[in-house]
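Journal club prep, notes for RB
We'll compare a predicted complex against what the paper describes. Inputs for the cobalt (II) ion case:
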Amino acid sequence: MMSIKILRERIRKIGHYEAMAALLDWDQNTYMPAKAAGDRALLMEEATRLSVELFLADQTGELIEAAEAGTLTPTEKNIVKIVKREYIKNRKIPSESHVRLKGETARAFEAWRAAKEENDFSRFAPALEKVLEICREQADSLGYQNEPYDAMLDLYEPGIKAAEVETIIRPLQECLTGLLGDLDNGGKPDVFTPAAAFPLQLQEELNHQLLKLMHFDLEGGQLSTAPHPFTITMSPGDVRITTRYNKHDPFSSLLGTAHEAGHGLYEQGIPEDLMLWSEISTPSLGIHESQSRFWENGIVRSLDFWKCFYPRLLEIFPVFKQCKVEDLWRSLNRVEPSLIRVEADEVTYNLHIMLRFEIERELLNGKVPVSRLPELWNEKMKSYLGIEPSTDSEGVLQDVHWSMGLFGYFPTYMLGNLYSAQFSHKMVKDIPDLSAAVAEGRLEVPLQWLRTNIHNHGNIYQPGELVKMVTGESLNINYFTDYIKSKYHEIYRL
Ligand code: CO
């Protein structure tokens, strides 16, 4: 048999193992009973081990080489290119190190959870030290030119360096801080809080209306509930998204659903041939996040969207009749510096990322000790957002990422916002009547653009290549700064 056929069969099999791990993961984060946690960790380890062993075996490398030497169709060429890139990168880390990290992060996660609950950073510190040590070793195995942090960043956003992130941050911070100052002199939107309850079942119905409008395929996917919303893909026909409900605020789940459905539409839009397994089928976390941010902030937080969705909202929650559509839109875009990243508005969100980037970079590069984290966190909160947490639970302990060894992950959230603005700018140029289409509820118009320009390419191109190909230039933060200034000046009537 031709080696490309054998290679593709191997990829399919790895995909099956990955899908098993993903399904276990989905279940763990949604409906799994608490007592299953111990066994579940073992099952997931087993599924991961099967996948990693098969993928990182010498034989996979031999098959890649043999396939490259044969005759390939354009699609096959792309598949080999993607698999080879991931194979080379993942082989650099010894599998023993993968396993050790898995064990240490499982312990660190539990320590973090207890520390957060008891507001006691010292309970987390020793476990974090151990995770950091392994991450530094992995950075050394991966290799880097300037600093260990670059190697970690490259795992999530291939091609970008810490120094480049730093050059983005300075002007971005200046823009956002300036904008916050402007907004102080503007008309702050009122928050419309009707003294009504919003039953979960009705909120679910509202979310499903949104999914229908977005063309999220509910026969190839599903919306369920999770304390920390996420999206996970088993196969092109099984993309699970999640949201969480607040019975006093139907927009909390709606915006969460918009975000995750943005991730989900991306996964559903990847051509079947290029959907190898979810983790290696898109260029980066930043590009993935550009899709979720586009739908969450670019669409569902836009006035055009509410022109079409407001009547649907009234059908389910007539209490909003008292609120004009423009006021509703303004209230969904109220800006307020706050302590918790996941609850932050569009303007302050990136400031939360900046302080995390600075801290984790120094931490990984060995420039600051773990013991200084709480103090450093509070200092930076004060300088970036002008507020300070009174407890570590609301401060340095709020995010799960570091306990899981995800150093270099946070900047991808910021990059997602920047990519999204740059893509949107091009989309508007390509589709002059985009605004009218959204106001009429024809969301297939922006979706089709995303399918053609982004989703269809799977993981063929690196993030930088994709951005350049789609928009004609490299990452340029002016698209985001222009967008955010003009949007919020309008909302605050400046
Ligand atoms: Co996201």
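Talking point for the session: The mean pLDDT is 95.
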